[in-house]
């Protein structure tokens, strides 16, 4: 930088306050380290700051995404684990399932999960007794998630264990028919035999 007149240190552009110039190998291109109003740091080029193309560290996009499916997944997860009035609390927070510190804030959750999100998928824990944390999650279809509930009833036949819902779908036998047969102590082979 040849003169102080080019310095924008201390100036604020939208949510970004310029802290210092960052050295680059590109001639006539000035990159700046900036402090966002949210407390995060980021870099931006002079032109992007002056033309309003760089307005935050990216947190504004996250705030705008508060109505997105991933925001809903985050909010639902927190409610299940932290709100005793939530209808699902007893199966989550009520039995000790918690949310890791990083995911208590939407930005951490967003940064970890957004790149792999598929529209319509739900958040599930790999270990149903484990907490919501970076090494214990996956995206699943609603059907897969339904088969992963701790309240599911499993039935073993010929060395294969599945939920009653899975057996019902696979064999074309009504779910409640299978349940009644099990409750009536039918032999396992007959439980899954279509009539």
What structural keywords apply?
195 residues, alpha+beta, 9 helices, 17% strand, elongated, disordered N terminus
Written overview of the protein:
The chain has 195 residues and is α+β, with helices and mostly antiparallel strands. It folds into three domains: 4-57, no CATH class; 66-146, no CATH class; 154-191, no CATH class. The protein contains nine helices and eight strands. It has a four-stranded antiparallel beta sheet. The chain has a two-stranded antiparallel ribbon with strand order 5-6. Helix 3 packs across helix 5. The chain starts with 11 loop residues before the first strand and ends with a helix. Residues 1-5 have low confidence and may be disordered.
Distance between the termini: 85 Å
Number of strands: 8
Largest sheet: 4 strands, antiparallel
Oligomeric composition of the shown chains: single chain
Rg for CA atoms = 26 Å
Instruction: Give the helix proportion (percent range).
Output: 25-40%
Give a short synopsis of this structure.
The chain has 195 residues and is an alpha+beta fold.
List the topology elements.
Layout: E1 12-13, E2 16-22, E3 31-36, E4 41-45, H1 46-50, H2 59-64, H3 69-82, H4 101-104, H5 106-113, E5 122-124, E6 138-140, H6 142-146, E7 154-157, E8 160-163, H7 164-171, H8 175-183, H9 188-191
Antiparallel strand pairs: 1-2, 2-3, 3-4, 5-6, 7-8
């Amino acid at each position: 930088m040849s003169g102080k007149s080019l310095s924008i240190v201390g100036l604020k552009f939208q949510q970004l306050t310029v802290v210092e110039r960052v050295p680059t190998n590109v001639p006539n291109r000035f990159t700046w380290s900036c402090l966002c109003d949210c407390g995060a740091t980021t870099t931006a080029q002079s032109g992007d700051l002056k033309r309003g193309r760089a307005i935050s560290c990216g947190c504004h996009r996250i705030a705008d995404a508060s109505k997105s499916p991933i925001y809903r997944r985050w909010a639902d997860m927190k409610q299940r684990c932290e709100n005793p009035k939530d209808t699902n609390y007893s199966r989550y927070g009520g039995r000790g399932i918690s949310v890791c510190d990083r995911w208590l804030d939407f930005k951490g959750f967003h940064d970890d999960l957004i790149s792999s999100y598929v529209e319509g998928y739900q958040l599930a824990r790999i270990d149903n007794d484990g907490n919501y944390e970076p090494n214990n999650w996956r995206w699943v279809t609603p059907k897969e998630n339904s088969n992963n509930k701790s309240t599911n009833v499993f039935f073993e036949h010929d060395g294969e264990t599945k939920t009653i819902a899975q057996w019902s779908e696979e064999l074309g036998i009504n779910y409640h028919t299978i349940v009644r047969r099990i409750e009536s102590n039918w032999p396992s082979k007959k439980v899954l035999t279509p009539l």
